[in-house]
Amino acid sequence: MPSAIAIVGRPNVGKSTLFNRLTGRRAALVSDRPGLTRDRRHGEALIAGDAVTVIDTAGLEEAPSASIAGRMRTQSELALAGADLVLVVFDARQGVLPADAGIARMVLSRGVPAILVANKCEGRAGADGFYEAFRLGLGEPIAISAEHGEGIGELTAAIAAALGLSAGDEGNASKAARAAAAALRVAIVGRPNAGKSTLVNQLLGEERMLTGPEPGLTRDAIASDVVWKGRPLRLFDTAGLRRKARIVDDAEKLAASDAVRAVRFAEVVVLVIDAERPLEHQDLTIADLVESEGRALVIAVNKWDLVADKQGMLSELKASLAQRLAQLPGVALVPISALAGRGLDSLMAAVFAAYETWNKRVPTPDLNRWLAAALEQHAPAASKGRRVKLRFMTQPSARPPTFIAFCSRPEALTKAYVRYLTNSLRTAFGLAGVPVRLKLRKSDNPFVRD
């Protein structure tokens, strides 16, 4: 009999969206309106090649037993009673509410294996809520965005481990096939007339995007699917992004917001800059947007065939980036000619490498060995006559790599020291060119006891 996985949580935290994502079909209605799901819904999912039953439940909330909400709660409790594993979902953007704590206590009292799922973690909006969840007592949460499919791979791996699933050859083949079918989302962004659409046409091998010398030809963020050397990609050609003060036309405003949305939903962003006018202020503003959204970044220097002193310009660009884009040290810089189709292999190799780095996870023992060495090399300065003790570190999520350091007094650590730790992390674990999040938390948590 297949293992049963119950999805529980407050109303409107994204349980049905996660159900649809795991089962691979839109069997459950989803909406911003809370309470849309009332009955238990069963579906089949493949986890590590094995079939499992996934149960979508109504929101667990306190209500009189005779009411609709009370009967919905009873249905959810029945699903919980028959489950081999429970996914406790909460909305990371809203943070941990008292109802979430009540659900966690109920799950713990039943003694059913559980995984805590922090949903709606796309971008940076859910960061604070994610860290609050450590106090629920359900272990380290897994950050996902059920709507956008982020973190689902990590969640399914955790489900497989919790259920003791081990796929055979057929299961592994099925898993590999599904992984190959998931297209890597790449947004092509930059200033107007930098050559974005020309680059997309070269990658697609056809003139699908309108190109020309006039800036602003592209307005919608156009998605195109292509397979590059056996790797499926979804490319988003976006409108040129100018400074806000220069955008007066309503159509251009909509196009700019569409381009920003493409950045948020992409996994890797290729910033196309013009070699004849490289690294203008707007280029750096776009790069900063990509970093703040937590996406992997690759910079393509277009029109490279027009550059006379290629080696000199490359050295100058690298030095300028190191100084003006210090928050993303080591970002890949790839010279190309979109019109002539040169440098595309190097560009795509850099895209795939950035994606792998963006997904990198560091084992906790390695992190803490690194932390001990970093502290020995450069200990934090004392504050008000007291030493700041950094005791433990873990990586709760990737995409981008995110770390939590538990310490005695987080507020006493200077920005310069946090920068030292972040840069040391990048060097030690090969995290160049992608955003790295390092959060500080007090050490009164499930991992550390004073």
Give the helices and strands, then pairings.
Elements: E1 4-9, H1 15-23, E2 41-47, E3 50-56, H2 68-81, E4 85-91, H3 98-110, E5 114-119, H4 127-132, E6 142-143, H5 152-163, H6 169-181, E7 184-190, H7 196-204, E8 222-228, E9 231-237, H8 250-265, E10 268-274, H9 281-292, E11 296-302, H10 310-324, E12 332-335, H11 344-358, H12 364-377, E13 390-397, E14 402-407, H13 415-429, E15 437-442
Parallel strand pairs: 1-3, 1-4, 4-5, 5-6, 7-9, 7-10, 10-11, 11-12, 14-15
Antiparallel strand pairs: 2-3, 8-9, 13-14
Question: Your description of this structure?
Answer:
By secondary structure, the protein is of the alpha/beta class. It has 3 domains: 4-178, 3-Layer(aba) Sandwich (Rossmann fold), CATH 3.40.50; 183-358, Rossmann fold, CATH 3.40.50.300; 364-442, GMP Synthetase, Chain A, domain 3, CATH 3.30.300.20. It contains 13 helices and 15 strands. It has helices spanning 15-23, 68-81, 98-110, 127-132, 152-163, 169-181, 196-204, 250-265, 281-292, 310-324, 344-358, 364-377, 415-429; strands at 4-9, 41-47, 50-56, 85-91, 114-119, 142-143, 184-190, 222-228, 231-237, 268-274, 296-302, 332-335, 390-397, 402-407, 437-442. A 6-stranded mixed sheet has the order 2-3-1-4-5-6, sandwiched between helices. A hairpin with a 2-residue loop joins strand 8 and strand 9. The longest helix has 16 residues, at 250-265. The two termini are 45 Å apart. The relative contact order is 0.08.
